[in-house]
Structures are given as structure tokens and as C-alpha cells.
Design brief:
The protein is built from 9 helices and 3 strands. By secondary structure, it is an all-alpha fold.
């Protein structure tokens, strides 16, 4: 059982990284048999790993149609952006000055950098700095749910490099009032784009069928 548990943890981590990196896109079917073959394991640890991800809402179970990366509608996506915004603003309202010296610096050097990864890291860093584990956990979950969407929609965003650079700069400077304004603008822009984002996600998900 220990071997199954260890393998399940490994598969869970690999699939979760794949979701963050864009290897698995919204609407894509996750094939347990293919994962078992890829990771040279039996079906049992793969099933445990995938249903752990179902419990985290990072994968959805469509019963006869199998397991898929969630494909959100407009209401659900707008709600998710709204939730992330509220979590980050709540984090900003908690004193973070005491962790300023410990926080790992973030840097966005060029437009070719992995903006999706850096966005995840920035939002995670802000939440972790509060030292409130429940808030940090909620941000991690929302971050993971948004990561596949961020991968697909980068091309829709104007000035994405400048936008993220400014968020990082404000966080590094601990300019919390202006960071809160910037976070509101960041999420408002995406909420305005929700119809276009959902249309793009739906169009791309058609390639998986």
C-alpha cells in the first residue's frame, strides 16, 4: 500500500504541474490508462491521484465521458476571477511588513519569460506572506484553477508583460495601496474579456473531440 501511495503522490504532482504549465488544456480529456503507461504504474495509483485532483476541482468527472480539465462558462469564470481578486485584496489588508526581508525576489526580465508561472508565484507569495494558512490554501487552489486558462489566453491580453512587471514592482516595494489598485485593474480587465476568453477556450476544446 505504501508503494501505491508513493506512486499516487508522484502522479498527482506530475499532473498538477502539467495543468499549471499548459500541458493539459481546458476541455482536454485526461486518460488514466495513458498516464499509467507514461508513469509505468498500475491503474490504482493513477485513479487515486486523479480523484484527489477532482476533489480540488482541478479535474471534473463527466461520468461516461471520463475525466476532463474544467471548461468554464462565463458565469463560472467571472466568479473565479472575482474570488481570486477578493482573496488577494484580503491578503493585502494583512500586515506583511514583517516578512519583507524573507520574501524571495521575483523578476520579469523580458516578454519571453513565463508570465503564467510568474503570475502564479506572485499571487502565491502575496498570500503566503500573510502567514494565514487557510487564505494561502484558498489562493493556491484558485491559482491552480486559473493556470490552464492563463496559458491559453495570453494572446488576448494587451500589455501583459508591462502589467505583470508593475504588479511585481509594487509588491517588491510593498506599496500595498497601489498594489491593491493594480490588482483590481488586473482582474477587472479579465472580467471584461470573459466572453472572448470563454469563446477561445470553447474553440480550442473542440480540437480534443
Amino acid at each position: 500500500m505504501d508503494a501505491i501511495h508513493s506512486k499516487s503522490i508522484f502522479v498527482y504532482g506530475q499532473v498538477k504541474r502539467g495543468l499549471r504549465s499548459g500541458r493539459y488544456a481546458p476541455g482536454q480529456r485526461i486518460d488514466p490508462a495513458a498516464l499509467a503507461a507514461e508513469f509505468n504504474t498500475s491503474a490504482t495509483p493513477v485513479r487515486f491521484a486523479l480523484y484527489r485532483l477532482v476533489g480540488e476541482t482541478l479535474i471534473v468527472d463527466h461520468a461516461r465521458d471520463g475525466l476532463h480539465v474544467p471548461l468554464l462558462n462565463e458565469v463560472a469564470l467571472r466568479d473565479l476571477y472575482d474570488w481570486m481578486e477578493h482573496l488577494l485584496l484580503a491578503a493585502c489588508d494583512i500586515d506583511v511588513s514583517r516578512v519583507a526581508a524573507k520574501a524571495q525576489p521575483l523578476a520579469l526580465a523580458s516578454a519571453d519569460d513565463d508570465r503564467v508561472k510568474l503570475t502564479w508565484q506572485l499571487f502565491d507569495t502575496i498570500a503566503r506572506a500573510t502567514a494565514h494558512s487557510s487564505l494561502h490554501h484558498a489562493v493556491k487552489q484558485a491559482n491552480d484553477r486559473l493556470a490552464p486558462i492563463r496559458q491559453v489566453t495570453q494572446g488576448l491580453l494587451k500589455h501583459g508583460f508591462e502589467e505583470l512587471s508593475e504588479l511585481i514592482r509594487l509588491w517588491q516595494a510593498r506599496d500595498i495601496p497601489n498594489l491593491k489598485f493594480a490588482l483590481r485593474d488586473y482582474h477587472e480587465y479579465r472580467k471584461q474579456l470573459v466572453p472572448r476568453i470563454v469563446a477561445l477556450l470553447s474553440e480550442r476544446s473542440g480540437h480534443f473531440h
